[in-house]
Structure formats: C-alpha cells, structure tokens
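Why does this matter for the project? Reviewers at the last site visit asked to see concrete outputs rather than summary tables. In response, this paragraph embeds two records directly. Each consists of the residue sequence and, immediately after it, the corresponding structure tokens. Nothing has been edited or filtered.
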Amino acid sequence: MEGVINRKLILEDGTEYYGTGFGDSCDRVCEIVFNTSMVGYQEILSDPSYTDQLVVMTYPLIGNYGIADDDFETKLPSIGAMAVRDYNDLPSNFRSVKTLSEVMEDCRIPGITGIDTRALTRSIRDFGSRRVLITGADTPKEEGIRIIGQTPVPHDAVKRVSCRKRWYSRTAFARYSVVAVDCGIKHGIVRSLNARGCNVTAVPYDMPAEEIIKMKPDGILISNGPGDPADVGEVIELVKALRGKYPMFGICLGHQLISLACGARTYKLKFGHRGGNHPVRNLLTGKTEITSQNHSYAVDAGSLEGTGLRATHVNLLDGTVEGAEYGDGSIFSVQYHPESAPGPQDSAYLFDRFVRKMKEAKENA
C-alpha cells in the first residue's frame, strides 16, 4: 500500500518514523513492542494481551490474506496500534470477509505502514520497550513528547478487557467443567479445552472465590492478559484462596499470577518475548519445544526457592523461567501459549495434562 506520508511515530526519546496511515486516524500513546511472527496478524490484532501496546510486525507483508470471522481471539480487539512495512489492502483469500484496515477502523485502532520496521525493531531490541505516540505527520516532535509525558501509564488493563459477566462455551459429551478466570482470555484457549471434552465457564477477573466454589468446577484456568501482574491483586488473592482445592492451569499472565500468589517475584523484561519461534526446554522431559509467546514480564528464577514452586521449562535464548509447577503438580503454569494461535503446535500436550489432572482429582475425590 503506497500513499501520501500523513502519519508518524514519535518515541519518548524523540525518534521519529514517518509513514502512511491505515485503520483509524486517531492519535494514541502506547508502549511500543515487536512481534516476530510470519503469519497470524489477525490473532495478534485481537489478542487482549496487546492492550495499550503498539505492535511492530517484523514480517514485512501484512494484510495480504484479509480477515476471517472464525479467527478472532476476542470479539472486541483492544490492541493499541500496529506498525508494518508493507500493508496490503487487496487480500486474496476465500475466507476473507474484511480487510485488516476496515476492522481496525471499526475498532478505532490506528495503523501506520511504509516505515523501516527493521530499524525500529533494532531500536526496541537495543534500547528496550518505550512509550510512543502515533499521530499526524505534522505534529511537532516537542508537542508529541509533551503528550507522551502527560499521558498516565495505565494500570487497569485487565479490568478493561475482562468480561463483565460470566459466559459459557459448551461442547458435546463434556466430561469436565472448567472455570476460566478471564484476565483477557484468547478464544483459542477456550476452543482447545472444548476440543478435549471440557465445558468452559469464563468469569470476571474479580469474581469472589466463594462464587467459583459454588460452581463446583473440576479445574481452574487462569488466563493470559495484558499489563503488569502486580496490578491484578484480585486474581493473586483468588489463586491463594483456591490453591489446593482444584487442579489449576495458568497461561502467560496466569503463570505470573500463580507465581506471585505462591510467593515468587516478577520483573519486566527489556523488550519482552513476542512471536511464534521461541525455543523452550522442558526440564521434565528434556525435549525442546518451539513456542508462541507474548509477554513483557517474567518470573524471577531466584525467587522460587522456598515457595513450593519448581521450574519446569526454561527459555533457551535468555534463560528465563517459562513454566513452573506447585506441590504435587496439580497446579502448573507456562509463560508461553500452548494454543499457539498463531504459532507451532508443540505445546498442545499441556491441555492434555490439565485434563489428566482433573481426571485424577475426580477419581480420588
């Protein structure tokens, strides 16, 4: 897509990148991050974990297969913005119902194309994630920096993306009932549980433990979601209240929240892990998995001692903790996304493990 230079990015350090707008034309302050996936821009666009973030796609051609109704990870995408090298507004795909730009315009998500995404990605890699303003090309740099400085850093992302009321996803011949604590859950996670004979009830992040106990679930899932895990004290307290009562599985933010509830610490990574190509060693089997990831925070490996948590997976690129289990292993979590939408399918076995733990718990009840 070629067009007039009418939009730009202003980073908080004063760096500017000029390009052409697509999607919505609003201005927005975000945290700038990059994603190395070669496919799956629709799943990235609709992943609630990207709330308040401007995602730079390292793969250059974006939009070429359009948007399909069945591939959304949430009904209301909340990503901050998107920056790409070459946006294609003429998709070729029999499943396509809209262009990427049309969906972004409907959801008030701004985008910019035509920028040097390689240089921008290197900047994020070398200097870390920073705040950025996507705005009109005529906005003075000094004005943009002032806007960034005056825009508060949000701490309510999970509250904004979590469901307001419980909702259900049922499947034929269900054998297990799972309560999913919705911190920004991806629909791919729900589909993965349905495919394994689980009825899923998604509940708000701040639902009291007593209400969940009344539902008599077979297992609890703590979902992925955006932001700093320390901001979600309600879920940390919920995990403490339910720990030991049910098998529990945490994914991404859920992994961090379970770890915090057990007494571990988390910290922010320099530029995070995002993409479908991260190698992770499974310490239980010795096998290496290629994983799909999306997170800014990690669990501090040195803080696990004395918590009852054991590391089960480790990132082979930087040594960060990618998985942990508690006690007899009926509570376990991973930092990456086993539903892998988009991404490799190496880690789908984790849903099978969760089902086995629920089966064992029912047999021993």
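We now turn to the second protein, recorded in exactly the same manner.
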Amino acid sequence: MDKNEIKVFCPATIANISCGFDVLGVALDGVGDEMVVRKIPEKGIKISKLEGQDLPMETHLNVAGVAGMALLEQSGHSGGFEIEIYKKIKAGSGIGSSAASSSGAVWAMNELLGNPFSTLQLVQFAMAGEKLASGVAHADNVAPALFGGFTLVRSYGPLDIIPIHSPAELYATVIHPQIEVKTSDSRKILKTNISLKDGIKQWGNVGGLIAGLFMEDYALIGRSLQDHIVEPIRSILIPGFDAVRSEAQKSGALGGGISGSGPSIFAFSRGKEIADKVANAMEGVYRHIGVAHDVHVSKINTEGVRRL
C-alpha cells in the first residue's frame, strides 16, 4: 500500500431531513464521488484533475482546495497535496456535492498524515469548503459524510456533533429533477423569523425523528418527517414536489421531503423492495410532466468517507 497516495469514496448526503434544518443529515451508500489524494513536496494544494462536472480547478475557488488548505494550515506538514476529483454527484443537486469534495479531501489528507486530527476537527475544516459553496459554514452534509450514518449538529458554537443510530432496514430513495437550485439562492428566500407555534411543531418532530431512529420505530420516523418552516417556501422552486411526495407515500414510503436545498426529493422506506417501488412512483410523476431526472435507491452508509 502506497503511504503517499490514497483513493477514497466520498458519499452523497441528505441534509435537513425535513424537520432538522442545518442540524440533521445522513450519508448514502449508493452514490458518491471518488478522489485520489497524494503527498507532494511542494507546499499547498494542487488540483490536477477534475472529471464529471465543470467546476473550477483553482485551489481557492474549489471546495476541496479550500477545505484542504484549512487542514494544511493547522497540520505543520512541510509539503502539500495533489488531488484528483471524479465527480459522480451533480453540483446543485441537493445531495451534498460540495460536501463530498470537502469531506473527501480532508479525510484523505488526514489519513496520509497519520490521523493527527479528530473527526470533529475534520468537520470544521470541511465546513470551510461549504462556506465557499453556499456562503454559510453549515455542517449538516459534511458531518454525516465524515462520521457516517445520521448525525445531529447539536451546536455550532462550539461545534458539537452527535452520531445517531441508523435502523438496519432503512433505505433512502432520492430523485433529482434535472434543474439546478443553488444553495446560496435557496437560502435567500427563507424567512429569518418563525412563529412560536411553528417552532413547537418543528422541535417536536426533531425529537420524534431522533427517538424513532434510536428505537427503530419506523412509524414514528414517518410521522416525524414534517417540515413546517423551510419546505413550504423552498418547495415552490421544485416542479411536481407535492405530487412526487404524495405518490411516494402511496407506494409505501414512511415519509420524505426536500433533500438539502433541493431540487432533489428524498423518501425513506423500510426495506429495499418498498424503496424500489417508491422510486418507480416518483419517476412516474416526472415522466408524466416531462421532467428529465436521475433516481438513486440507497441503504444508509454508516461508515462515511472510506478508502477504496
């Protein structure tokens, strides 16, 4: 095994999970990017290859470069790193494209340096990439990408991340209509104040969802997948949203909502058989209204970024 080079899988993620805006996320197993990271004698980060998406290769304009520099500056390492990025997650899809690049870069660099940093520290470095992508250093995608499974960001100041149990039979179906919704744009339309009534409903659902995950109570998970604050506003940007969610639930989904800032829509199901039926139902809506789309069915990835 080459101690100076590593190839990694960087998972796609679902953030918010309906009721947990900016604090809940989960890693997926069926879709993700790949990266090759190697040590080089020159100081700094060099992105030498980027395939799959038209994204900047300049270090200061690329989320992997920015996240990597955040780690490098704290590492005391005398050299630098070269990064090859193979994007399988489309930018602006709502399943953590920027988080996969940011998380993969810092996880791989940490491995090559002998793991001097904790997973929590890696999240903080990866958040620098998220700030470049969206204008906000949020952790709800990078936390599950690095910890694996479901994660709760209990606090941002100081950063406090709680790994949440993943029920064994839980599957995610994610459909991506081929339109781009930039995270930075979808944040601009949100209200900055909420009513006490909506707040009470929302934190009841957050507590219910976390309890449901730990108890493996699938019905409770489904009842808790409701968003009274963000989804009513953001869903306006997504064609066919209400119909897609409705057809998913008719096909047996526990519940679902917008993945991250959209336009992808997710649904959770108990078992792969139902998750596949849900995928067909969701696709049927977009075929009917003539919207090109991708669909992914995935078990929960409890490992996060991993070596290939």
